[in-house]
Amino acid sequence: xxxxxxxxxxxxxxxxxxxxxxxxxxxxxxxxxxxxxxxxxxxxxxxxxxxxxxxxxxxxxxxxxxxxxxxxxxxxxxxxxxxxxxxxxxxxxxxxxxxxxxxxxxxxxxxxxxxxxxxxxxxxxxxxxxxxxxx
Length: 135
Prior knowledge:
Blueprint: E1 2-8, H1 14-25, H2 32-53, E2 60-68, E3 72-79, H3 106-114, E4 117-123, E5 126-134
Antiparallel strand pairs: 1-2, 2-3, 3-5, 4-5
């Protein structure tokens, strides 16, 4: 079972993205905690793509969500924005007070911590980020 969504990479489309994800998750045996973790990760990744990937030009995000036999939920984001591997980003030092932390990176960190697996690939001019959450 899988579903796909192609949507303009603009922050105002976040409610549509979240409705897409939540609608799919309601059809699975995804518990409340896993659903919340998936939603947080999806929100952070989509907002990052919408904010930074296309650097002032328009573009889209291709999303695919599927239920695997593990059982797990796998979500793939693909965009034609600037190449960017979020897994290479240094994690913020969350032990520091907020006023002393560098700006940025917290959303990616939250996504990494809430998912069981994240993989990045750049091929055919596309950033491809896959998130996996075991159920």
